[in-house]
Amino acid sequence: xxxxxxxxxxxxxxxxxxxxxxxxxxxxxxxxxxxxxxxxxxxxxxxxxxxxxxxxxxxxxxxxxxxxxxxxxxxxxxxxxxxxxxxxxxxxxxxxxxxxxxxxxxxxxxxxxxxxxxxxxxxxxxxxxxxxxxxxxxxxxxxxxxxxxxxxxxxxxxxxxxxxxxxxxxxxxxxxxxxxxxxxxxxxxxxxxxxxxxxxxxxxxxxxxxxxxxxxxxxxxxxxxxxxxxxxxxxxxxxxxxxxxxxxxxxxxxxxxxxxxxxxxxxxxxxxxxxxxxxxxxxxxxxxxxxxxxxxxxxxxxxxxxxxxxxxxxxxxxxxxxxxxxxxxxxxxxxxxxxxxxxxxxxxxxxxxxxxxxxxxxxxxxxxxxxxxxxxxxxxxxxxxxxxxxxxxxxxxxxxxxxxxxxxxxxxxxxxxxxxxxxxxxxxxxxxxxxxxxxxxxxxxxxxxxxxxxxxxxxxxxxxxxxxxxxxxxxxxxxxxxxxxxxxxxxxxxxxxxxxxxxxxxxxxxxxxxxxxxxxxxxxxxxxxxxxxxxxxxxxxxxxxxxxxxxxxxxxxxxxxxxxxxxxxxxxxxxxxxxxxxxxxxxxxxxxxxxxxxxxxxxxxxxxxxxxxxxxxxxxxxxxxxxxxxxxxxxxxxxxxxxxxxxxxxxxxxxxxxxxxxxxxxxxxxxxxxxxxxxxxxxxxxxxxxxxxxxxxxxxxxxxxxxxxxxxxxxxxxxxxxxxxxxxxxxxxxxxxxxxxxxxxxxxxxxxxxxxxxxxxxxxxxxxxxxxxxxxxxxxxxxxxxxxxxxxxxxxxxxxxxxxxxxxxxxxxxxxxxxxxxxxxxxxxxxxxxxxxxxxxxxxxxxxxxxxxxxxxxxxxxxxxxxxxxxxxxxxxxxxxxxxxxxxxxxxxxxxxxxxxxxxxxxxxxxxxxxxxxxxxxxxxxxxxxxxxxxxxxxxxxxxxxxxxxxxxxxxxxxxxxxxxxxxxxxxxxxxxxxxxxxxxxxxxxxxxxxxxxxxxxxxxxxxxxxxxxxxxxxxxxxxxxxxxxxxxxxxxxxxxxxxxxxxxxxxxxxxxxxxxxxxxxxxxxxxxxxxxxxxxxxxxxxxxxxxxxxxxxxxxxxxxxxxxxxxxxxxxxxxxxxxxxxxxxxxxxxxxxxxxxxxxxxxxxxxxxxxxxxxxxxxxxxxxxxxxxxxxxxxxxxxxxxxxxxxxxxxxxxxxxxxxxxxxxxxxxxxxxxxxxxxxxxxxxxxxxxxxxxxxxxxxxxxxxxxxxxxxxxxxxxxxxxxxxxxxxxxxxxxxxxxxxxxxxxxxxxxxxxxxxxxxxxxxxxxxxxxxxxxxxxxxxxxxxxxxxxxxxxxxx
Length: 1342
Fold this sequence. Notes:
Elements: H1 11-17, H2 21-36, H3 41-47, H4 50-60, H5 63-76, H6 84-97, H7 116-119, H8 128-137, H9 143-146, H10 150-153, H11 158-169, H12 178-189, H13 204-218, H14 220-225, H15 232-246, H16 253-265, H17 273-288, H18 294-302, H19 311-321, H20 323-335, H21 345-355, H22 363-376, E1 398-399, H23 400-405, H24 408-421, E2 428-429, H25 448-457, H26 462-481, H27 485-502, H28 505-515, H29 522-528, H30 531-534, H31 537-543, H32 556-581, H33 593-611, H34 620-638, H35 640-654, H36 659-678, H37 684-705, H38 714-723, H39 728-734, H40 737-742, H41 745-766, H42 788-797, H43 806-819, H44 823-841, H45 852-862, H46 865-868, H47 879-888, H48 902-912, H49 923-953, H50 970-978, H51 985-999, H52 1003-1014, H53 1016-1019, H54 1022-1031, H55 1036-1052, H56 1061-1077, H57 1083-1092, H58 1108-1141, H59 1157-1162, H60 1175-1194, H61 1203-1215, H62 1221-1231, H63 1238-1241, H64 1245-1265, H65 1279-1298, H66 1309-1320, H67 1322-1329
Parallel strand pairs: 1-2
Helix pairs in contact: 1-2, 2-3, 2-5, 4-6, 13-15, 13-16, 15-16, 17-18, 19-20, 24-25, 25-27, 26-27, 27-28, 27-29, 28-32, 32-34, 33-35, 34-35, 34-36, 35-37, 36-37, 37-38, 39-42, 41-43, 42-44, 43-44, 43-45, 44-45, 44-48, 48-49, 48-50, 51-55, 51-56, 55-56, 55-57, 56-58, 60-62, 61-64, 62-64, 62-65, ...
């Protein structure tokens, strides 16, 4: 067929003619959209020239285009969009593309490319008959079958494929390929999302699956042809899950029954996971209605479904509640093997007992359950209660736990009959989770542990007890006569275990004593006294001395006798260890088990003591007394190691008591501890015993403090604190805030008062021992009776205490302060007193000042002054000490820890407001009442010490020439920082003298310091170190700088001051005079002084943003104070310099003195930079600057050649004050204005040079604050920018004035300076000119 015969239209023409691959693929997609429509497809097919034309197009298309075409054909045939005519033409096209498989086709492709796999994609577009013929043929050579995509065929040929599958599985239809079966079965049985079915809550796939499953049961061919990879139970449980999701209330019983039928047909399904799900469904139904669904449960158990054994604990639980109703079901479960095999009855029985939820079975039910196990689990079961022939359950192990679970009588009966049935088989398995005497299973003979257990069960039988005692004797004899070491150890162990089994403590004690004969036989002794043999649970229970099965005659006297024997037995163990120590083979590690034995015995003893029922007339306290008496005896006999092991148990025993009984029991412990402490000539072990007992006592008292009867514990706590002063860390637990809060108000008050009195007495006794004395005086107490930390803690807990009134707290603190001598105690007391005062003053009451407690606290604090201001806070020096020092030529030791002494520091912190904000109203009074007297006292003490020091090391130096310095100059600095406004003139003057001393240091002091430093012996002396710390500071001038800073800051501080401003100014002037007297040596200090007077001396407040108003008010007031104080001070300093410069007969005319220019600048009328400025103020400032410059250059010191230096000084001074852009521009406008006072400034060229230089610097500074260029956008032209623009316009006029040529006779050197600046700052000049709309950027003004 030729090309001319094909007429292509639309999409086909595009595909044929278009070169672009994108457009060609678009044409194919257009064809695909049309093919989906059941009617429009034909026109689109005809546009491609029919089948022949499309065949031609495919032969000339690319492989990717062929694939895209086949895909759109495949997608065109789908459910609801089918067309038989379209399917027919697709079949025609497909056969033409595969002529080798369809030779009868008329049309044939000439394309030889191997595209058969791609062509097979169009199979879905064919009719169902065509597709079925392909599937039936199963021709592996046909690419349509070889590459068939069954999952995609389902979209168009679902009914045909479902019919084929149904015929195959149910109606003996033709053979299908395995892939077809797998894909179609999965699709039609479990399709998601499902199509709706005809029955309620059922989808079509669920109904179809159910139909197949029912056929699986009834139709033979279905069973034979069922898919191997799809288990029937899986299909069923899929239906079950989907039905449960659709409706939880729907009846699913028919599915469960169907599942059980399937498992009966195919038993292997019972172990599958689906069987487990089926069992869970059965179990859920049975739990809902046991009677109705019991048959399903029984059938599931019979089929042994997976996890069916899990039902047994549930059945047992219901059987426990209603044994008559459920026992037949329990029997059924046991018969079907849910209880395990007959050879493992022991383990399975125990597992069931453990798995029973909620409350465990009673002993009677456990016995009944064991009977059922033995009767129905073995093939020929027996009733163990009525039958003595145990052959069917013999020769298998039985756990000791089985017998523990039974009552004594039943256990004895069962054990005895098993013993008879197992003459040669040791069936009793020993406990595994603890050491037991029943571990001896096969030796010395089979079932030896059974004999022991039977002996225990029959302790009340005299015949059994007699036989047991005889057996003990026989075993002891065998051990004594055995030739082999292993046999001796074995029989000795067996004898001890048999003695324990008798329950006779005397027999056990005698046996332990008898075992000591083997101490000299090291290997035997090591085996006998091994941990596993000594620390048996039964032995520990026996040694506890208290029976858990008391008889009617069990009284405290009986318990006391038994405890005495038990304790004697423990002593026998200790004796054995003592004997072993004497042997060369002794190894300490072999006897460590005794420590565990003591601990375990006492733990068991205490546990039983809590449970024992006493006679009505007997008290529990008597029980404690008996146990404690025996404990003390053992402590004396065994030693500290015993007490360490049992102390926890003793504490545990105290938990059983409360109220007065607990107090009495605790007193017994304290009395014993006191006896041990008083004992003289103690050995090392006794010291250790005493220490252990002290630790036990501490824990007992701590337990009392946290008990529910804190009121009863007062006396013991007080006694413990006084008797154990070294246990200060425990005192915090005894006397905790929690304990005090638990006391009634009056009790808390009385306890604190009595305790404060007792502590005060002890502290007073302690004060006999002087700090620093190597040995106490003979008349002093032998030892301090109270710890400083305890007294300190007592003071601390009273701070803000809520368990007593403020009056009581003050009384207690006052009582303590009277006798306190240690600085830490004093600190704590003062801190608490101040805290109390803070609480009173901070209660917002208007009349708090009239509270008598306030004056009482202040009176108590008055006594702090001589201590805080003493030469040594830690060891105050009194008048007697000073007199002795003068007589003996010695020096009292000063405070040597450096810095401000802590008590003085606390007073300073209070007044500075760092602590106790409620005392703000009392700051002035507390300063004058506490701080200032303390300062004066410190100065007096220190001056007295200076006199003694100089008398010893430099008699020629007059001590009166020294300033009155406190113990450390840091106090002055601290006062000036925070309380300077309270300082009187005398204190300011004393501090000023100290600063002058730093500037003009006397030579004789320097010589003394050098001599002291060079003497290696004296250099390490405390007194010498104190002297050098005051008068030999390496950074003396730095100290002076700190001092002058604080003085100036105080002068300009915006607060009312006690000291007149004139006195403060006078102090600065006096220091300035000293500097000027030797200016050549103090040039740096003079510059620092002048700089300190600048605006930097104004201190800012550290306030939050919410307090901005307060901040502004403060800064405004601060500037006012600065202007009122600094300019007059600067004038006085200028006058002082001029006075020094004036000719005098006694002074060199060429003396070197500083310039007054910086001081003159300080006298300018500066305004607060934080206040919005007005232009006229800056103009006034500029005019005043002009007058200052003119006046300066007319004076003798005004040198025009130094104009650059003066310009720099002026710029720095102004720039340090004004940092805002608009301020700087305004200053540049007015300072740089040459027409301002033109007549006067023109006569002094240096003035104009300075003005221009300062203005240029301010222009540069303003540019750094922000761009001076005019914004291009109107929205960026803010009010601030408008203000800048106005100033810049004015500034340009001023600057252009600088560049104008002068008259021929006029010298204008500033013009050259300006032109050079302009050349270097072209961009900045353009920014300035940008506000002129006629200015062209880059142009230069003439």
